[in-house]
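Apologies for my clumsy wording, but can you show me some protein sequence, whichever is easiest, together with the matching structure tokens, please?
=====
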Amino acid sequence: MRRSARGAGATIAEQDPATDAVPAAGAVPAEAVAATVPGRQTGVLAAAPAPQRLLTEFAFELPRGFVDEAGVVHREGTMRLATARDELIPLRDLRVQENPAYLSVVLLGRVVTRLGTLAVVHDGVVENMFASDLAFLQDFYRQINAEGHTRAGVTCPHCEQPFEVELGGSRLGES
């Protein structure tokens, strides 16, 4: 990765692709670090830390599997993290307004990105899943959108023993 100070012609050290590490300041020639940026004082440019990668898609395997019109069972899939838009748009859907329980079907239809060899996953696919697969996907949605789990460590006020409590809501969109 090359970075340059605009207008100064100075460059900062290249990032090692094997380790994502930037050489220490002492390993970079002084003339490559010092730069004059128009309108600013002369100083030392610090290499930006390597950006952390956020995992946004998660693989899953349905307990039973979705059976398509040809009788093919689709079990392996991927779900992406939900955005605020994913949770807001279904609220305008007439099916959700008439029956709030339909929210999870519409929401899952938006965030399940792959299921077996199906070309497209949409709410029509989700509404035709077995109840156990729908429940699995609802729980999986809660887990990945609550930083991996919906449990919190607590201590019993009587015996002072630590234990975990499930904090997940009863429906998608609730926590």
